[in-house]
Write a structure and sequence with these properties.
- The chain has helices at about 5-10, 25-45, 55-70, 70-80, 90-110, 170-185, 185-195, 200; strands at about 115-125, 130-135, 145-155, 155-165, 165-170.
- It is α+β, with helices and mostly antiparallel strands.
- It has a five-stranded antiparallel beta sheet with strand order 1-2-3-4-5.
- A hairpin with a 5-residue loop joins strand 2 and strand 3 (about 145-155).
- Helix 1 packs across helix 5.
Amino acid sequence: MAFVRIVLVSVIVLLQFVVPGELRAGAPTDQVRQTADQVLTLLQDGRFKGADKESQRRDRLRQIIGNRFDFPEMAKRSLGANWRRISAAEQGRFVELFTELLEKSYADQIESYDGEKIVYGREKVARDQAEVDSKIITKKGSQVTLDYKLRSAAGDWKVYDVVIENVSLVNNYRAQFNRILAKSTFGELLRRLEAKSPELQDART
């Protein structure tokens, strides 16, 4: 399964699966489940169904996902050490464009969910950091490990990275951004983000 497909499924699988009854979930998994319930409610709401409701549906979907995924933190970590080398205005613009890139990718794919199942494993919490381990089971029976990394923020647990088969989404983007910045300027990186560059889309495969 392509990396981008698994990453998108990492959001999509929030839709309908919960921790098995024999496991005692803590706050991180509980809050992921709350997000799942909200997304399910949205997708089942007749007021948001149909092609003519796509804009309203996706606006609401982005709001729900944005409440659980810490896109600004993901953007900062994806830029790595380069974050400190740019101005506050550039940081703000980068966060905006990076968030749009992820949100659009998720919105484009979330309605093509194709029955993948997820089984949750351990939930590890250390102070303000947490990790929820899981596996995606495809229709063909193959398994893919999927781990959510979260941090505590204002009483909520926010996802700041997704690790698929030991490959970090944040690290994957950071490697791509570093390659671009090694040859070009930060302004060029922003231009590519604004244009939704095919190179950056390939970074997620």
